Hints:
The structure holds three protein chains of three kinds. By secondary structure, chain A is mainly alpha-helical.
Amino acid sequence: MDIFLQQIINGLVQGSIYALVALGYTMVYGIMGLINFAHGEVVMIGTLVTITVAGLLIKVGMPVALAGLAGLIAAILCCMALGWGLERIAYRPLRNAPRLTPLITAIGMSIVLQNLAMIIWGRNYLTFPPLLPKMDFEFAGANFTLVQVVIVLVSAATMGGLLFLVYRTKLGMAMRATSQNPAVASLMGVNINRVIAAAFVIGSALGAVAGVMVGTYYEIAHYQMGFMLGLKAFTAAVLGGIGNLAGAMLGGVLLGLIEALGAGYIGDLTGGFLGSHYQDIFAFVVLIVVLMFKPSGLFGEKTGDRA
Amino acid sequence: MSKWLNPRSAFGIALIAAALIALPFVAAMGGQAWVRILNFAILYVFLALGLNIVVGFAGLLDLGYIAFYAVGAYTYALLASPHFGLHWPFWTILPIGAVIACFFGVLLGSPTLKLRGDYLAIVTLGFGEIVRIFMNNLNAPVNITNGPQGITLIDPVAIGGFKFSGTTQILGYSLSGPQKYYFLLVALAILVIIINLRLQNSRIGRAWQAIREDEIAAKAVGINTRNLKLLAFAMGASFGGVAGGVFSAMQGFVSPESFSLIESIMILAMVVLGGMGHIPGVILGAVLLSILPEVLRYGVGPLQMAVFGKMLIDPESLRMLIFGLALVLVMRFKPAGLWPSPERKRELQGDA
Amino acid sequence: MADMLLEARAVAKHFGGVKALRDVSLGIQRGEIYGLIGPNGAGKTTFFNCMTGLYIPDGGGFTFDGAPLLADAPHQAAERGIARTFQNIRLFGNMTALENVMVGRHVRTKAGVFGAMLQNAATRDEEAAIRQKAIDLLHYVRIEDRADDLAKNLSYGDQRRLEIARALATEPKLLCLDEPAAGMNATETEELRDLIDGIRRDGTTILLIEHDVKLVMGLCDRVAVLDYGALVIEDVPAVVQKDQRVIEAYLGA
């Protein structure tokens, strides 16, 4: 029983990170129908920027908590600028291009960002400075750390903020209108360019927060870390129904839980034939099964053919 | 077929044939490594044209194409290596690999082809990862794939007594192993080009284009869109399987590392960057994207030395950086690809 | 009972709470031009989509040519002999006019992948026959001089004609035209009228959904009127025209 609870906690933590990254994919997809493959790289850069900034500040004697906060803010600012730049330079000129063109651009940008990161930060694993004190809690036979608590709380607060932004502000209304019908929204006076840029900037800021959380959780970082994380998060977004904010959040948490429980129990389920190194396939197997029965994802709108 | 008799086309074909025959000998002047690079370029032409049936003709976004290549490669590796002690002949295994890959294509395609484009992309991507992870881990408790170490000592291609590995003397010329494989690959590539061309201008090819243009209208004129999509998927998978078998034999070694997601993405990039659906464009895309990283590999280091007098940036990452930038720039300035089909060009101008 | 080609029995369809079709029953006789009219949103196109398999009806069903019509697969409707055009023209825009019609031959031909790869005699003959039939059909709708133009570059009227040619390529027993005169001027409508009449004389039954009441009344043998998803009347034009309920439906009383 305690393994079960333990895996639930682990899954919830991993799932909150997926959810934050998935939001970045789903916002951009919802508004312009683009799979922004480079989003995972934005997250990676968020982590690495924090390492540099917080590490430097700690070295010059700044209190750890303050240095961590500065690192987080630096990461958010860097990623926002990066997201804005990506949209402005790489994607905006391709608005009317064939469907696959921006996808290849996104892949190209992902390669560029990865290798830029490698040139700047090197090809070795970097240690992430411990920003939070090491504290363990015990609950019904399961252990969890302060880091895990903070990750779940911060991501819940961030997502709450996003929902407020999207459903209670003018910018949010413009974003929702654009995702429904860009042409009509623009006729109604919505500045489409601004809305799309905002989706990239906000998504990247969420990615930066996720990046700092990943770094804090695993305590290491690497220029290739964004790729698999991005893939999983995108899977989570599709699982929830891409373009749907709540879907991305629930899809992320669900994916985290499925992976954690799957890794914990796969050995028992298959009589030891398959081990926990199959963890990475759960995401995809679940995705394929869900889409077979719910082709628009768990919470996606049904998009029927129209005559 | 009368246009083949036209003296100008005949001359053009003779010229291309002469160039194709001379190429491996010219490349060999720079070392056998360049012949191998050339061989991979042709293997990628084969793969890209296989994927072109799926993406270019039927309009299905497949990001897990490498999985079928992997299935073909492992089929060959397992049936022609000391791993299981089996040494079946090349020409028997190649069709088996194609059929197994085709089977996997249908297995994946039949439940998922009703999904809309981008969902299909992520499902195929997931499938590619599943296949790779299984290959990485199916070494215990029963050792099937030998895990991350991969399978070694795979038999080279042999037709009758003629072996494609090692050097042979033919008519007083000495042909190296890679050079012999080159001619085998060119023959296969020509075959797949002819199949692509014939499919494109057929009843099936028109139906695929109709589905791409307007699926509802296609259904209304009686096209069974589901079966035709599945057909495209299965055909693309079979080509992937054949390419995998050849790869296995040529390398003598396979491991899961060769079948990562980036390979799928690379092949898709070849198709789109060259000019989706346009056969000459796809060939150009495959050749450019497979040769460019190699040229950069040999060129970036010396160039830095010449300009700055020292190595400022790790050549490996600089090479990939330039490669990524090239993708972005080509898409920025040639959104329909480097060599799009005439219709596609018109299509774009119409939208602008 | 006359020789019925298509019979609809109590066809019902709702979207959420909206009842788009309420138990519509009607019958189309072999060889006639049958008009289906009604105000905007009366359920004409929904009826059409149910019949051609784009929607699955929530109740009732269709009998076509003596056998039930399976409602779940649009491509089967064409196979059985029902062809259609669309209210907002749906051509294969980046294919030529000729290729559009050649695609229409798909359902009556059978060359497969292996035929295409081998290019054997049977495949080549079939391909030549497809091309010839398509050229003939372009002549039939009088746009043969636009054969090599991309469909999207044709004029509006020619696009309508091309869509009809593509539908005829499937050798339909029943040709369904969804508002073919929409957006046409008087001359074009007159030409369309002649074309439809000619198609019927050449032996194809026609279901015409139209807004242009004048065109329907002048051309159709029988007319059905839908309002709020229900059948109001089904009779010859002279009777329908004078029916009080029809007048009310159109005037919105």
